[in-house]
Specification:
The chain has two domains: 3-132, Sandwich (Jelly Rolls); 142-217, Arc Repressor Mutant, subunit A (Orthogonal Bundle). Helix 6 packs across helix 9 and helix 7 packs across helix 8. Helix content is 44%, strand content 25%. By secondary structure, it is α+β, with helices and mostly antiparallel strands. The N and C termini lie far apart (45 Å). Strands 1, 2, 3, 4, 5 and 6 form a six-stranded antiparallel sheet that branches. The protein has a three-stranded antiparallel sheet with strand order 7-9-8. It is built from nine helices and nine strands. GO terms for molecular function: DNA binding; DNA-binding transcription factor activity. It holds the Pfam family cNMP_binding. It comes from Mariprofundus ferrooxydans PV-1.
């Protein structure tokens, strides 16, 4: 790994002193396969993760086995929970799963702690998590107060790549929205009765795009 490669993926590192940028030269870029669990709830944090390319899904499971996606770490991002765990010396409160082949760089915990002494690196590390805090607040509001049919309509539209055919299961949608699979199945059946979607095995096809958009614009 070179300092130039890190700067290309993380332009905000450009303000760091050259001595700190050289710290990245000895780090190894790793390729992680889809489906790999990078960390589990209760694991200790081994280092600060830079995602060069790919996607890591960070999710939380309750005692009954229900899951909710907290956020994703994608190209040019770092993991908010990793930063929090390193700063507080605590274990992970959730798990991180690789969603697609991902290239990442791991800065060992001891080196991360040492670099925090530099104000520029400290601003970088804390700045990377600021947007995530706003996203999590919005997620909390949605889960606590949002109408599930509106949230589901919005998520289907977000996932649509233009083909209007989504390869995903009811369980996956439930995980995305932090609810039970049975709730998603019931709402999708209602959508199907309205003619908004057609349900196939492992697939949801959007039949009435305008109708789904109209529902998605309603207040949650």
């Amino acid at each position: 790994m070179t300092a130039d490669a890190m700067l290309l993926a993380f332009p905000s590192l450009a303000g760091l002193p050259a001595t700190i940028l050289r710290e990245f030269s000895g780090l190894k870029q790793m390729r992680v396969d889809k489906g790999t669990v990078l960390f589990r709830d209760g694991d200790s944090c081994q280092g600060y993760v830079f995602v060069m390319h790919g996607s890591i899904r960070v999710q939380k499971m309750d005692p009954e086995g229900r899951e909710i996606v907290l956020y994703r770490v994608e190209d040019g991002q770092t993991c908010m929970l990793t930063t929090s765990c390193l700063l507080a010396g605590r274990s992970y409160p959730a798990e991180g799963v690789v969603e697609e082949p991902t290239e990442l760089v791991l800065l060992p915990a001891a080196r991360f702690d040492a670099l925090l002494a530099d104000p520029a690196f400290r601003r970088f590390a804390l700045g990377m998590i600021s947007d995530r805090i706003a996203e999590l607040m919005a997620l909390i509001e949605d889960v606590a107060f949002g109408r599930m049919d509106v949230r589901l309509a919005r998520r289907l539209l977000e996932l649509d790549d233009g083909t209007h055919s989504l390869q995903l299961t009811h369980h996956q949608l439930a995980t995305e929205l932090g609810t039970a699979r049975e709730v998603i199945s019931r709402i999708l059946k209602d959508f199907e009765r309205r003619g908004s979607v057609a349900l196939k095995r492992g697939r949801v096809e959007i039949s009435d795009l305008n109708g789904l958009r109209e529902l998605a614009t309603q207040q949650v």
